[in-house]
Design brief:
The complex is a heterodimer. By secondary structure, chain A is of the alpha/beta class. Chain A has a single domain, classed as Glutaredoxin (3-Layer(aba) Sandwich). Chain A has six helices and nine strands; from the N terminus they run αβββααβαβαββββα. In chain A, the strands form three sheets. In chain A, strands 5-4-3-8-9 form a five-stranded mixed sheet. The longest helix of chain A has 15 residues. Chain A is globular, with a radius of gyration of 15 Å. Chain B is an alpha+beta fold. Chain B has one domain: Glutaredoxin, CATH 3.40.30.10. Chain B contains seven helices and five strands; from the N terminus they run E-E-H-E-H-H-H-H-H-E-E-H. A five-stranded mixed sheet of chain B has the order 1-3-2-4-5. In chain B, strand 2, helix 1 and strand 3 form a beta-alpha-beta unit. In chain B, helix 2 packs antiparallel against helix 3. The chains are: A alpha/beta, B alpha+beta. Chains A and B meet through helix 2 and helix 6 of A and helix 6 of B.
């Protein structure tokens, strides 16, 4: 990972932005929209590609943490530019039990709206967003594409939502 | 294994009462590993850690915490609980070593066999493993790791700071010696 590569990382939407709406296929016949999760926090995990080693490890970690995310009432959505059948095969193979959304056609449109499309690669950044129950971005992070960002940032952001809610 | 934008540090400090510890409590350096018994990278790190311990001697305290990624490793949770069942009978490290030396044989009959070979009270072992008595402890470890920035296994912390470099022997020793120098300076 050279510094030049690091410097090319996208800048995520700032906290306080309205999260761009989307409606993407999660299965061949089911479309999920951001709006339907209004009232609960949403974790968006943009990842470059199904099957790549780093993506697989990252998503396996998040699968392990689903019960923890649920204690915050949060829903986790993975997003990449892969098609829905590819997502299904990947999820089945890796035992992933959360929706993987296909930002497939028009390709990367949602990633572009979230400022995390990598036009040179035709994939997305490895980026995380935590969106609050009102649809406002509370935290965004773009990881170097080869680095698994873990879950500590997500957990901290979810805890911060709780503090705001209690205040 | 690499850096995130924020500094990753151990959120749950090592305690002699709770943690599985090898080496003196007042050692200059504490090395914490978050590991998964079925993870091949942890298997590769296992002899490296042994070598590091042998070279550092009393200057090093080593701590192991569970981080089973069951999504990828279907036997990892049961293996982690097995080590905790052995710990309940004062034999954590022997079981820890057996598990890493037999990573391809982590099915229930294998685990039972390891308990027998260590001379554990096997009835108690079987009862505790079947009842998942130690599952909560394993999950506690897992969550402390997740909150400390563990993003895969193994992840190491040297005196509470995540080791974001390679864990080959030379790199690990150099990092530990730097930590010794920092505290004894």
């Amino acid at each position: 990972m050279t510094n030049a590569t690091l410097d090319q990382r996208a800048t995520p939407l700032p906290p306080g932005s309205e999260a761009p709406e989307f409606a993407l296929l999660s299965t061949p016949d089911q479309r999920l929209s951001l709006a339907e999760f209004r009232g609960q926090p949403v974790i968006l995990a943009f990842y470059p590609e199904d099957w790549s080693p780093v993506c697989s490890d990252q998503l396996a970690l998040y699968q392990e943490l689903l019960p923890e995310f649920q204690t915050f009432g949060a829903v986790l959505l993975g997003i990449s530019v892969d098609g829905v059948w590819c997502h299904l095969a990947f999820a089945n193979d890796r035992n992933l039990h959360f929706p993987l959304l296909a930002d497939f056609e028009p390709k990367g449109e949602v990633a572009r709206a979230y400022q995390v499309y990598r036009a040179n690669d035709g994939t997305t950044e490895r980026a995380l967003y935590v969106i609050d129950a009102e649809g406002i971005v509370r935290w965004g992070y773009v990881s170097p594409v080869g680095v698994n960002p873990g879950a500590d940032g997500i957990l901290r952001a979810l805890e911060d939502l709780g503090k705001k809610g209690a205040a | 294994m690499s850096t995130t934008q924020w500094g990753a540090a151990l959120t749950v400090p090592v305690t002699e009462d709770r943690d599985h510890v090898q080496g003196p409590a007042d050692a200059a350096v504490t090395l914490v590993e978050y590991g998964d018994y079925e993870c091949p990278y942890c298997g590769a790190a296992y002899p490296i850690v042994k070598e590091v311990q042998s070279r550092m001697g009393d200057r090093l305290r080593f701590v192991f915490r569970n981080f089973p990624i069951t999504t990828s490793h279907p036997h990892a949770e049961q293996a982690a609980e097995t080590a905790e069942c052995a710990a309940a009978q004062g034999r954590f490290w022997e079981m820890h070593d057996l598990l890493y030396e037999n990573q391809a044989r982590l099915r229930d009959p294998d685990l039972h066999g390891y308990a027998e070979s260590l001379g554990l009270d096997v009835d108690r072992f079987d009862r505790e493993l079947a009842g998942h008595i130690h599952a909560a402890r394993v999950r506690e470890d897992f969550m402390s790791g997740a909150r400390s920035g563990v993003n895969g296994t193994p992840t190491f912390y040297i005196n509470g700071v995540r080791h974001d470099d390679s864990y080959d022997l030379e790199t690990m020793l150099a990092a530990l010696e730097r930590a010794v120098a920092a505290v004894t300076a």
